[in-house]
Every structure is written in structure tokens, then in C-alpha cells.
Amino acid sequence: MDKLFRLKPLEQAVVQLILLAWTVVVLFPIGTAVLNSLKPNLGEVYKAPFALPSVWSLDNFAEAWVGANFQAYFLNSVVISGASVLLVCFGAATTAFVLVRMPFKGSAFLFACFMLGVVIPIRLALAPLFVIVKTLGLLDSLLGIILVQSASMMPVAVFILTAFLRSVPAELEEAAAWTGPCRSRSSGAWCCR
After folding, report:
1. Residue 192 pLDDT greater than 50, yes or no
2. Packing angle between helix 142-167 and helix 70-101, nearest 10 degrees?
3. Cβ neighbours for 117, distance < 8 A, ≥ 6 positions apart
4. Do residues 78 and 60 touch, judged by C-beta distance below 8 A?
5. From CA 71, how far away is CA 62, in angstroms rounded?
6. C-beta atoms surrounding 176 within 10 Å
7. I need a surface site. Which of 43, 61, 150, 176 has the fewest CB within 10 A?
8. How many Cα atoms are found within 13 Å in the side-chain-facing hemisphere of 16?
9. What is the chain's mean pLDDT, rounded?
């Protein structure tokens, strides 16, 4: 396996040149957008889109922040992403722990249902999901977005954490039981370390 990734100096140079070219392809549009955002007016952007600004100005950012009510959108993004991550981390960690460390009669079926959530694209569920969210009265609300976002991320998180927990030896949990924590607290022990 180690010999598979060893390259001769010429091969290394070719790979590095390809990676460098790809980096330029990816970063050029981003750099152009940043430079154009620092230009004072739109005329200068149309006249010379790839040139450096004649006058460097941050006024566009201030105008977008205040004029477009960007602070409200930014706060919404922080609330939605933060709540979704917390909900998915807690839900996926507890689900994966139960599936791996406390198997029950239907645990294989439940894991298969989560794997279906990984395989089936979310776009197929958009129409029924819209109807459910509308029926629950969560349309156009932060809670509705948080729940939908969390539900769409949960299968992948359960899959990753289940694979991780299967790689952690059960003896580690037994050692935690000897040192004092009860079974409910030992599930959090591996998260914190």
C-alpha cells in the first residue's frame, strides 16, 4: 500500500503543476469577486473587471450590511446552522450509540431506514415535505427550516457515528463502567474525549 503512493520526482512535479493549475481555476473567480466588491462604483467593474480598483473602498460592504438588511439574514443563518448542528449532533450521537452498543430486535431495520435516507436524494421528498411543513404551520419560520435541515442531515451523521462507534472497542465502555459512570453517562464520555 505504501508503494502505491510513492511518486518519482518528475511525477510529483506533474501532479503539483496540475494541483496548482486547479487552485488557480478555483481561486480566480473568488479573487475577481473580492476585487470587484472593493471598487467604488459599478462602472469601474464593467470597464475593467479584472483590474485592481482605482480607489479601494469598503463602502459596498457597509451599504449591503445596512441597506439590504444583511444583519437579519446573517443572524438567521447563525441561528439555523447552530440549532441544526446541535440537534443533529445530539440526535445522531444518541441514535448511533443505541444502535451499536444496545442492539435490539429492530435495530438493523432502523439502521437500514437511516441508510435509505442517505441513498434517496432530498429532492424526491421536497413536495411531500412542503405539504407536511405547511400542514404543521411551520412554513416561513426558523423552526421549520431547522427541523427540515436537521432531518436531511441526520442519516449521514448516524452513518458516520455508527461506523465510528463500531471501531471503538467495547472494553473502553467497560472500563468507564468500572470507574464509576452509569450507562447513560458513559454514552457522553466518548463524545467529550
Report:
1. no
2. 40
3. 154, 155
4. no
5. 11
6. 18
7. 43
8. 7
9. 88
| Full-model pTM | 0.70
Q: Is 30 exposed, middle or buried (CB count within 10 Å of its CB: 0-12, 13-18, 19+)?
A: exposed
**How much of the chain, in percent, has pLDDT values that exceed 90?**
59
What are 120-148's pLDDT values in tens digits? 888 898 899 999 999 999 999 999 999 99
**Residue 84 CB coordination number (10 Å):** 20
Cell numbers placing 184? 447513560
Which amino acid type is present at position 180? G
pLDDT higher than 70, residue 81? yes
Q: How many Cβ atoms sit within 10 Å of the Cβ of residue 117?
A: 18
Give the class (CATH, top level) of 70-192: mainly alpha
Domain limits, the chain: 2-67, 70-192
How far is residue 30's CA from residue 32's CA, in Å, rounded to a whole number?
Answer: 5
Contacts (Cβ under 8 Å, ≥6 apart) of 189: 176, 181
State the residue for C-alpha cell 473567480: 29
Instruction: Tell me the C-alpha distance between 149 and 80, whole Å.
Output: 8
C-alpha cell at 76: 438567521
Checking if the pLDDT of 93 tops 90, the result is yes
